[in-house]
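Reminder to self: tokens first, then the designed residues, so the page reads top to bottom the way the pipeline ran.
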């Protein structure tokens, strides 16, 4: 089915409550050197199917939620979970966007994959020189054909040069092609030392706080920062749902958190007096503020700010 374009997905990601990320598995057979979540062929995967099925049902019935991004690891390496999620979410009127390397493609596309694609709105196909060590261009092109034959919207994302992105635009003219940075997380940390720091006053709002991430094991993170998803960063950005019924309350609580509200609307610049550094990355400043908030040191300043926001 035809899903939102990349621009439409981005617009939804800036709408509070409209999107969520369902992190289906840590596992991936591809093994890219730049993988921001450090996925490997034997990484952990779903074991508690009751919890996972319940989480999918909770997302399906969540009011205001329009788009669920299915990521990992490689979603197609988690056949049962991917089938279950795409079918149940679509049946509940949600749109899905699946992120994949397309490693599963070949001369013949298995029927179960065609069925998953038929229940998917948008497919993000990731390809670049790192993916190409395992997933060669003809495989990516075969995956793109299968996606387009299923009438999904196709977005090709390239962690590479403008020239590389242009080559993919020529190869697959029906796709939207856009470039993405290599993130300094997971194995990507070895390739990039970090993101450029900017004056705190120039750090904008964090719209990723509109995309909470729910892992298959019930871990919920306030945003979709990969380092936080794989267990890094402040604990304050993470909660644990041990039962599916807890998910709605956790998502509501993370969205209503006073610090998250400030970061989502204004960004760290609103709290510059709590930061010791003059320059920082957005996530770096956020982590410092999360730690300060969890130590309760500056709670009065935060609430003063919230009150002044409301008046
Ligand atoms: S970047 Fe994607 S395809 Fe590559 S190892 Fe990570 S999850 Fe797999
Ligand atoms: S700024 Fe904070 S909330 Fe936003 S993506 Fe980075 S870690 Fe997550």
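Designed residues (311 positions):
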């Amino acid at each position: 089915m035809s899903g939102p374009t990349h621009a439409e997905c981005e617009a939804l990601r800036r709408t509070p409550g409209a999107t969520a990320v369902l992190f289906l598995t840590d596992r991936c057979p591809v093994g890219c050197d730049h993988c921001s979540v450090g996925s490997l062929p034997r990484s952990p995967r779903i074991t508690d199917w009751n919890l996972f099925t319940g989480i999918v049902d909770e997302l399906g019935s969540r009011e205001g939620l329009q788009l669920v991004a299915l990521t990992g690891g490689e979603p197609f390496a988690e056949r049962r979970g991917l089938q279950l999620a795409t079918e149940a979410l679509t049946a509940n009127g949600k749109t899905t966007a699946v992120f994949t390397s397309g490693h599963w493609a070949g001369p013949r596309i298995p029927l179960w994959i065609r069925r998953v694609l038929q229940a998917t709105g948008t497919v993000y196909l990731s390809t670049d020189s790192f993916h190409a060590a395992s997933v060669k261009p003809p495989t990516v092109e075969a995956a793109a054909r299968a996606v387009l034959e299923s009438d999904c919207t196709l977005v090709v994302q390239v962690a590479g040069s403008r020239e590389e992105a242009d080559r993919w635009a020529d190869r697959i003219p029906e796709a939207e092609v856009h470039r993405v940075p290599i993130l300094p997380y997971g194995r990507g940390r070895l390739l990039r030392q970090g993101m450029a720091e900017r004056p705190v006053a120039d750090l904008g709002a964090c719209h990723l706080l509109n995309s909470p991430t729910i892992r298959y094991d019930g871990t919920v993170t306030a945003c979709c920062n990969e380092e936080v998803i794989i267990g890094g960063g402040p604990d304050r950005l993470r909660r644990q749902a041990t039962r599916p019924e807890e998910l709605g309350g956790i998502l509501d609580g993370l969205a209503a958190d006073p610090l998250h509200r400030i970061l989502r609307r204004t960004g760290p610049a609103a709290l510059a007096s709590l930061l010791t550094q003059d320059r920082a990355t957005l996530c770096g400043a956020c982590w410092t503020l999360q730690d300060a908030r969890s130590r309760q040191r500056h709670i009065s300043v935060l609430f003063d700010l919230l009150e002044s926001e409301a008046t």
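Residues 206, 208-209, 222-223, 225, 228, 233, 263, 282-283, 286 surround iron/sulfur cluster (ligand 2) (CB under 6 Å).
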